Amino acid sequence: MAAKYEIIDSLNLKYVTISGSTNLAELRDLARNYLDDPLFSLEQSQLIDLEALTDAKARFMDVFTLRNFYLRKYGPVDEPVRVAMYAPSSLGYGVCRMFSSLMSGQKLMSIKIFERKNDALEWLDINPYGPIWMAAKASIDTPNLPSNAARVEP
Predict the structure, then answer these.
(1) Tally of domains in the chain
(2) Which of 14, 32, 125, 135 is most buried, with most CB under 10 Å away?
(3) Cα–Cα distance between 78 and 100 in angstroms, integer?
(4) Quick one: how far is CA 2 from the chain centroid?
(5) How many CB atoms lie within 10 A of CB 16?
(6) Could you report the per-residue pLDDT of 105-122, keeping only the tens digit for each?
(7) What is d(CA 65, CA 62) in angstroms, rounded to the nearest whole number?
(8) Beta-carbon neighbour count of residue 10 at 10 Å?
């Protein structure tokens, strides 16, 4: 599976990584997993990391379907969820831009796209050099953790 997430309680953050090749079904399954996770909350900010994305099998209608899924399953909300999308490649940026454009005007998410991860973290009010993020990042980078299973509480 190329898409996984970790809940970082101490930062009130859902950290999503999408690597390799992904598609609509995988992203929709991941979003469904959030709903079943007792640690997930719509009050959590989100960092979507597309640094290792190599292929996205997603046409316009796929991204539109994903948008509608989010609106059905997560909305309405009192405050938009802050979503920082880290997309250093043109492929990642294009996918993020398409999703961001389709979510524009909706009150579910406040989305911003970044080419640098530190800028994304700072926009989410997370110090990229602070001990909490560094401890969380070290835990996230630990190999052999199953997808959707890491719960980071530095």
Answers:
(1) 1
(2) 14
(3) 19
(4) 13
(5) 21
(6) 888 889 999 999 999 999
(7) 5
(8) 12
Domain that holds residue 18: 3-152
List the alpha helices (DSSP H) in 23-89.
Answer: 24-36, 60-74
Distances (CA, A) of 86 to 76, 95, 145: 25, 11, 22
Is the whole model's pTM more than 0.90, yes or no?
A: no
Query: 18-35 as b/e, with b when 16 or more CB fall inside 10 Å?
Result: beeebebeebbebbeebe
CA-CA-CA-CA dihedral for 5, 108, 111, 25, to nearest 10: 40
Rg (CA), the chain: 14
Q: Which of 118, 41, 51 is nearest to 82 (CA)?
A: 41
| CATH number of 49's domain | 3.30.750
The token duo for 104 is 């524009």
